[in-house]
């Protein structure tokens, strides 16, 4: 449904031109998707996907493609300049897979939806003689490796003076524009104790496993006093050598998630206190190593309104913004969240079918069922619709200065609110 307060038409409607262009190249994009899907590669090893995407882009007139960009072997930056200066719209492509279960997060569909969006936007720049620039970033290792964060830190977005960032993600939940994700941080925990004979002289030892179990149990108790949206996950990776030895070493990996970066920081302090309690209780030495972390994704409502307008015109049914931003929240995490802290960002969800022949719901993202779902013709068609809506949103930004101003004003307000929350 479309909110009565949202535009029913825009000054210059480019959606029909975008639709025709994407439809014309859909067959070629389907081949790109299958090549990526059928040759899954984990983060920072996506050499085949990198080659497939950059080879495809280099065949397109006017595109400048930098392979292995910013010192990251499987990253790329592709740029298309308009006929004069103007806003810079960017798209992020993902193409890494999960170990053992391949493209069970549908990153082949993310790659081709943003590729379609970027190419269609560039085509409008050329045909309509528009000002501005399109940048497509190839962002490896979304599944825990933080490729976007590395590109952001290296200046990839700053160097091209990017104004907005667009991406999308498939799932089994309803189509949505204003997707919010959780912030997360990972920690490696190690305890160092002292060996002793567990039967003859246990008092000579310092039990590192007891320290880890004490911390684990403290975290289990802590969960009773955490807020909705706070998640703590743990794994014991080393529980000692043998039961008749007082364990001199233990280790585990933990992930902490929350609905915002501010909430995450507060929760992480409480979790670290549990680890410190394990050390205090047993006398073991604690070593904490911070791993990767992703910020929560803050969707831009102005961009979301534009995307929803175009998506719904193509048969979609994204609900109005004030409902969408509540229903589209997820406890999953993505490095697009860090992008949303640097510039106005949008990361819509699009539903694809993961069902058996009788219509029974099968697995969602990060399951083998979803890997199969992300290869179907229907999923491809749905990704193409997303690509059209992303392109229409990008062109909307390029042709309506008031939209870009609104998106940037909203982004600045979000940053001010965040700084106030952290004080």
TrEMBL record:
Q: Where does the record place the Peptidase M20 dimerisation domain? A: 185-277
> To which protein family does this belong?
Belongs to the peptidase M20A family.
Q: Which GO terms describe its molecular function?
A: dipeptidase activity
A Pfam family of this chain: M20_dimer
Its taxonomic placement starts with: Eukaryota, Fungi, Dikarya, Ascomycota, Pezizomycotina
What is the name attached to this protein's record? Peptidase M20 domain-containing protein 2
């Amino acid at each position: 449904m479309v909110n009565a307060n949202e535009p029913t038409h825009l000054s210059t409607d480019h959606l029909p031109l975008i639709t025709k262009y994407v439809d014309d190249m859909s067959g070629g994009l389907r081949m790109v998707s299958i090549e990526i899907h059928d040759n899954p590669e984990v983060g920072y090893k996506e050499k085949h996907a990198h080659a497939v995407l950059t080879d495809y882009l280099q065949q397109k007139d006017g595109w400048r493609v930098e392979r292995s960009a910013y010192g990251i072997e499987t990253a790329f930056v592709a740029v298309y300049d308009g006929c004069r200066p103007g806003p810079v719209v960017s798209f992020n492509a993902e193409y890494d897979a999960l170990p053992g279960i391949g493209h069970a997060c549908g990153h082949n569909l993310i790659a081709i939806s943003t590729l379609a969006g970027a190419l269609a936007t560039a085509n409008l720049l050329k045909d309509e003689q528009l000002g501005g620039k399109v940048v497509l970033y190839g962002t490896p290792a979304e599944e825990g490796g933080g490729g976007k964060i590395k590109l952001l830190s290296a200046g990839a977005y700053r160097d091209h003076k990017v104004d907005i960032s667009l991406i999308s993600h498939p799932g089994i939940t309803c189509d949505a524009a204003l997707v919010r994700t959780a912030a997360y941080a990972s920690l490696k925990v190690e305890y160092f104790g002292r060996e002793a004979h567990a039967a003859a002289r246990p008092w000579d030892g310092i039990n590192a496993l007891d320290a880890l179990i004490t911390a684990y149990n403290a975290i289990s108790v802590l969960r009773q006093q955490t807020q909705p949206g706070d998640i703590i996950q743990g794994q014991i990776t080393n529980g000692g050598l043998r039961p008749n030895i007082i364990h001199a070493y233990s280790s585990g990996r933990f992930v902490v998630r929350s609905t915002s970066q501010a909430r995450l920081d507060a929760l992480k302090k409480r979790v670290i206190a549990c680890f410190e309690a394990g050390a205090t209780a047993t006398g073991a030495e604690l070593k904490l190593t911070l791993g990767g972390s992703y910020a929560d994704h803050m969707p831009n409502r102005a961009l979301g309104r534009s995307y929803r307008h175009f998506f719904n015109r193509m048969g979609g049914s994204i609900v109005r913004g004030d409902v969408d931003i509540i229903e589209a929240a997820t406890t999953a995490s993505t490095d697009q969240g860090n992008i949303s802290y640097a510039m106005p960002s949008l990361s819509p969800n699009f539903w694809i079918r993961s069902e058996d022949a009788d219509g029974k719901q099968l697995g969602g993202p990060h399951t083998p069922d979803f890997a199969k779902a992300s290869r179907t013709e229907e999923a491809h068609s749905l990704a193409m619709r997303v690509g059209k809506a992303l392109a229409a949103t990008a062109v909307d930004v390029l042709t309506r200065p008031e939209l870009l101003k609104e998106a940037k004003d909203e982004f600045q307000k979000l940053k001010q609110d965040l700084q106030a929350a952290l004080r």
